[in-house]
Amino acid sequence: MSRFFETTLEQLKKAAKTMKLSPSVFTILEEPQRIVTAHIPVTMDNGTIQIFRGYRVQHNNARGPYKGGIRYHPDVNMEEVKALALLMTIKCAVVNLPLGGGKGGIEVDSHKLSQRELEALTRGYTRLMAPILGPKIDVPAPDVYTNAQIMAWIYDEYSKITGKDSPAVVTGKAVGKGGSLGRESATAQGGFYVLMEFIQKMKKNPKDMTVVIQGFGNAGSFIARMVHDAGFRLIAVSDSKGGLYCKGGIDPAIAYSCKRESHSVQNCEIAGIEYTKKGEGVCKRISNAELLELPCDILVLSALENQITASNAKNIRAHIILELANGPTDAEGDIILEKRGITVLPDILANAGGVTVSYFEWLQNLQKKQWTEKIVLAKLKKTMVEAFNEVYAMSRKYKIGLRQGALITALKRLEDTII
Ligand code: GLU
Fold first, then answer.
1. The CATH number fitting domain 31-165, selected from 3.20.20.20, 3.40.50.10860, 3.40.50.20, 2.40.10.500
2. Which of 2, 39, 212, 341 could anchor a disulfide with 296, C-beta 3.0 to 4.6 Å?
3. Taking a C-beta distance cutoff of 8 angstroms, is the pair 21, 416 a contact?
4. Ligand 1 proximity of 326 Cβ (cutoff 6 Å)
């Protein structure tokens, strides 16, 4: 049994102690306000009925409607969804959005479902959760293995149930269906702004820095292109099947098209960078565990939670860690990294770009307007840079790491609202 929720609470408790948070506020944040479990029947293509378990955890709505993604993954469980919902409450407060925190999940290996089965599952989940969703109540979004198509089905099903066109019930929709320009790349874009702000503070030049990326899904593939375009040298990437290390550098566009064709960054012959299938030459195949321990300047974590723990934190050779996933470093791993002087740009700040542009999408839907990409990016940058500087100042003030600085920034805002 994972201890994800418990260890997240431990980190929160530490921050609460440092900033002397009112105990009643901590008591409120310690448990989610509502948890709903659904058992969703789906008629499979072979005519049988299969039941899938899904959750929605509404952690806290003191600052606004519950907000947070829905993930489809075989390992989804209540403990995980509770932790992720708590992180959403904190994250929205770190970047000062008028939103609360929630999260959903379905225990499913979505790659094994046909499109029709996936649609039936999504619509079934929406029907069972509809009473607790709504543009002013709880607004889901994409997360691991969910996308704009799945959001479109939620929007459609919810609108049918309520008899009212309600695009603002969900974010992360395709642009043609009420989505925001810039939403798809927003998580990576926000993380990139935070990284650049930090690097400028450190007076470092991207041209002299190497980057390793774990995870090549939405966040990982977009940040790969961003760092490459900014002049960093991307030397390794991975996905759930394993990684590829190319000393001379990887062109992310080639890695992306390889992944699309052969389902893993590991499986492709990358033209132009002398990759050979046997792993000879400039590039070689490596495991995800090896990838995390490569010497590099920046390690981007954009896969799942609990990747850096007490067992590997002492072997990490990156100088900076950018957390685009939620909870990729556990509490013990975090303490070891801090002692070793490795800077962690924490998830609750670094991946908040996704929910920030979700908030912009929600506003555009409510106002029945479409902002230009230029406006979205300018507002995103402002939000991320301001949040980074506040968190940075907080960590200086209390002489603590950036994660604790971000937690305190959030707790102060939550305290002001709750009390
Ligand atoms: N799933 C994303 C996250 O963990 C986005 C949530 C949202 O946009 O509501 O932050």
1. 3.40.50.10860
2. 212
3. no
4. yes
- Is the fold of 31-165 the same as that of 186-350? yes
412 carries an active-site annotation: no
Query: Model's pTM, two decimal places?
Result: 0.96
CA distance 279 to 266: 10
CA–centroid distance, 230 to ligand 1, in Å, is 25
What are the beta bridge partners of residue 139? 67
**How far apart (Å, rounded) are the C-alpha atoms in residues 220 and 216?**
4
Alpha helix stretches (DSSP H) within 263-343 = 288-292, 331-339
Residues 6+ apart with CB under 8 A from 63: 89, 92, 93, 97, 98, 99, 100, 413, 414, 417
What is the distance, to the nearest Å, from the Cα of residue 266 to the centroid of all Cα atoms in its chain? 23
| pLDDT tens-digit readout, 74-94 | 999 999 999 999 999 999 999
The CA-based dihedral angle spanning residues 318, 18, 80, 336, taken in that order and rounded to the nearest 10 degrees: 30
CATH topology of domain 186-350: Rossmann fold (3.40.50)
Is ligand 1 within 6 A of the CB of residue 228?
A: no
Strand partners, 58: 34, 102
Residue-level length of the chain: 419
- Taking residue 206's Cβ as centre, other Cβ atoms within 10 Å add up to 18
Domain boundaries along the sequence of the chain:
31-165, 186-350
The atom number, within ligand 1, closest to the CA of 359 reads 8
Residue 231: DSSP 8-state: T
Quick check: helix, strand or coil at residue 99? Answer: coil
* Helix 186-201 / helix 353-367 crossing angle, nearest 10 deg: 130
**Residue 263 DSSP label:** S
Q: Which two tokens stand for residue 273?
A: 């960078």
Q: How confident is the model at residue 278 (pLDDT cuts 50, 70, 90)?
A: very low
pLDDT at 152 over 70: yes
391: left (phi over 0), alpha (psi -120 to 50) or beta: alpha
Residue with CA nearest ligand 1 atom 8: 355
- Give the integer Cα–Cα distance in Å for 180 and 182: 6
